[in-house]
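Exercise: predict the fold of this chain.
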Amino acid sequence: MNQATRLHLAHSALADPEYYVPGLPADWVTERYGIPANEIAKLGSAENPLGPSPMAMEAICDAVGHIHLYPSWTAEPLRQKLAETFGYDPGNFICGSGETEVIAMLIRTFAEPDGRVLMTRPCFPMYHIFSEHEGRVPVMVDTPNMTVDVDTLVDAIRPDTRIVFVTNPHSPSGTWLEETEVRRVIEAAPHALVALDEAYVHYSDTPGYIHLAGEYDNVIVLRTFSKAFGLAGLRIGFGVADLAIIRALLAVKPTWNMGRLQIAGGIAALDDSAHLDATVVAILDGKEHVIRRFAELDRFRLVPGTRSNFMLIEILDQDTDSTIVFNQLLERGVIVKDGSVSFRGMGKRYLRADINLPPQMDRLVDALADLP
């Protein structure tokens, strides 16, 4: 079968698909530029600089001998642990192979073909990528100041809106919405599912708004184990919502989407408060450090207000752009994200970089200062 025939078999929404652009791996930079791995600042994936939860690692090793056995198809032991942790019933949780899988399930379940899915622009790309590839219609509200304007978002909610994505802290800016603002969005869309994405909430200096899932029957709160728990490579995410929402999601959830190692690691990570607390302190220290260092630069500035483990860098120098700076940083062993490639609607004036340990922040600022 030739390539043209294979492509013809896919449905029309996949005729020219867009793919997610992840942060580059360090070994790619080593191979391309010959820079030793220990001299590379990997700041394009929002990974945990302290590594994985030690308690999760121990639990994963203990579970290896049981991988010949099927896991619970609903990840029931993890759902039970989540219920104990957050004060819900196990039936209020859906677990996925990363939060991204839960996002895909939401779009498939709650927006019919041609259904409208509301989000900001820019936003986490998987919202619009999954929507388009599933034949749904992403509706994007521009955020020219890189912060969410709740009035504009609420005004964009229509009777035929099926899902509203709210990311808090916002991606890619890291800015924060207060609870009253989130409630405004929820109450403006009683006919739609409001997906409150709290992937980075641990860095916000708040417990987040997971309690809203128990107050509204049109809300699902999403979280991940990839960031603060340091389990990005294990792939664990979850949503908490009204029982009716979860029952619908279970009908489309891939069977056995969570393996035994994921379940064991997630359960243990929820008890590893020492690792979680150390991670948050490290990121907050790194943020204070990089804010001080950026005061030395006159061609770049940090977009203020981030409550996450990443930051937006605005390029003030009109003689360059995000793609040029991105590549110049790679040559100096610093990996960030080019906003024009990674986020629809961001344009050529922004980079997104992780907030990391002070030595990595110094590599970033020193490299920016060194650019011609």
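Check your answer against the key: The domain at 54-271 is CATH 3.40.640.10 (Aspartate Aminotransferase; domain 2).
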